[in-house]
Specification:
The protein has a single domain (5-224), classed as Metal-dependent hydrolases (TIM Barrel, Alpha-Beta Barrel). The chain is an alpha/beta fold. Helix 2 links the parallel strand 4 (71-80) and strand 5 (108-113). It has 7 helices and 8 strands; from the N terminus they run E-E-E-H-E-H-E-H-E-H-E-H-E-H-H. The chain binds zinc ion (ZN).
């Protein structure tokens, strides 16, 4: 049976049986220990420190964290045209995090705002590392969604993605590919995104849960290990 899977969340409370990837800044405490709740961590392009030493120390914390089994993805990291950090510096830090992801063989949770051309170029530069690039909170046209899917990227949609009609068209355009749903900053959780997606696609929520659970387990094999949050005494 499928479960609700929240691909990208900043929440701290989840309902029983729900599985999620909670996004943390590299120096943000991992204080949530429950079966099925995992973490991702990365330098968000909107919060890149201006000092080199600070950025280096965050990257060090990040690389330490990524050795922990509970940190199952790198991110959110990426490129944001509206951020104050110059695009060159953003790309440099994004590339460093792609390298880290390749070292630990964990997928990337990508934040991308109005920089999809640069994102495609960065992925090309990174070569065929075989690390999945998953764009969270996708907002854009059906054409862009198709273009990113063709480049091998996976999309995750939240309720904000479906706020305008473009989001529904984008989901319909890539519905035969693997995709995810997420709550991101919404206190209402991932349920509303499942409801919206099931209406757009004309499928039952249970069916959607089953597909997405299967995709989640293929992307994050740790989800296959029972309820799979390994008990550990220390989190980096
Ligand atoms: Zn987020």
């Amino acid at each position: 049976m499928g479960f609700f899977f929240d691909f990208h969340s900043h929440r701290r409370e989840f309902s029983l049986g729900e599985k999620a990837v909670v996004s943390l800044f590299p120096d943000e405490m991992a204080d949530l220990f429950r079966d099925g709740i995992f973490f991702s961590s990365g330098l968000h392009p909107r919060f890149i420190p201006s000092g080199d030493r600070e950025a280096e120390s965050l990257l060090e914390s990040l690389s330490r964290r990524l050795r922990d089994d509970r940190f199952i993805a790198v991110g959110e990291c990426g490129l944001d045209r509206l951020a104050s950090t110059p695009m060159g510096r953003q790309m440099e830090l994004f590339e460093r995090q792609i390298k880290l992801a390749c070292e630990v063989r964990k997928p990337l949770v990508v934040h991308c705002v109005r920089a999809h051309g640069e994102l495609l170029a960065t992925r090309k530069n990174a070569g065929n590392a075989g690390i999945p690039f998953c764009i969270h909170g996708f907002r854009g046209s059906a054409k862009l969604a198709e273009q990113l899917a063709r480049a091998g990227m996976t999309l995750s949609f939240g309720t904000v993605s479906f706020a305008d009609k473009g989001g529904a068209d984008a989901l319909l355009a890539i519905k035969d590919e693997m995709f995810f749903l997420e709550s991101d900053g919404s206190p209402e959780g991932v349920g509303p995104a499942y409801l919206a997606a099931s209406e757009i696609l004309g499928v039952d929520i249970e069916e959607l849960k089953e597909d997405i659970s299967r995709w989640a387990a293929s992307l994050f094999p740790i989800l296959n290990r029972g309820d799979g949050n390994p008990a550990k005494t220390r989190v980096y």
